[in-house]
Amino acid sequence: MIWEAIIDFVFPKVCVGCGIGGSFLCKECKNRLDFVDQICPMCGEGSLMGWTHSRCKDRYGMDGLIAIYEYQEPIARAVVDGIKYGFNRELISIALKDFRFETGECFDFLIPVPLYFYRENWRGFNQARELGEVVGSKLLVPVENILERKRNTKQQVMMKTREERENNISGAFVVGNEWKGKLRKKKLLLVDDVFTSGADMRECSKMLKKAGAEVVWGLALAH
Ligand SMILES: [Zn+2]
Ligand SMILES: [Zn+2]
């Protein structure tokens, strides 16, 4: 492919972890990456398999979260940032390789958490959507852009308390018109690159469950 050859020339394959040439993540850095311990998406405390604690269950809340890496870990952060700014699918596949998870659910749709349009980069790359495509083809679950972002929000890092973050995000997502009335009893998997405070995913879950969804899980590359 001539186009790929040009891309390789302009953006040579170098490891995001150590800078060595040849691949986007060298074997050594990949081996140093550990899969992260799972947490409950509602309270952020540890939870076996990422299931929401029974004490944290909430009518519109998430039912569980699958996270792959620890965002604080330097190589994991380089991978997540490499995907966000480096617009390559190959790195996504490498990052997801060997990761297995079991939620006990059979999902109907996989939904990328939408970005506000100007946060997408110059190629219109949305890392949540790209990640969704790769995960969707692995799980054989169709990827659908069921949610739309209605307005932008302040950067969540500026928000100090959980309450501030939830207020900031409240009303930011809506179920697209063509999906209204079609989500009853559906089992959905939200996908995003990073689960930090989790306010975005919890708000998405709320909108989907209000629209009739029965189960909402999240999958994030890192937390
Ligand atoms: Zn490396
Ligand atoms: Zn909990």
Automatic annotation (TrEMBL):
One of its GO terms (molecular function) is glycosyltransferase activity. Keywords: Glycosyltransferase, Transferase. InterPro entries: ComF/GntX_DNA_util-trans, DZR_2, PRTase-like, PRTase_dom. Pfam families: DZR_2. Residues 6-46 form the Double zinc ribbon domain. Belongs to the ComF/GntX family. This is Amidophosphoribosyltransferase-like protein. It comes from Candidatus Collierbacteria bacterium GW2011_GWB2_44_22.
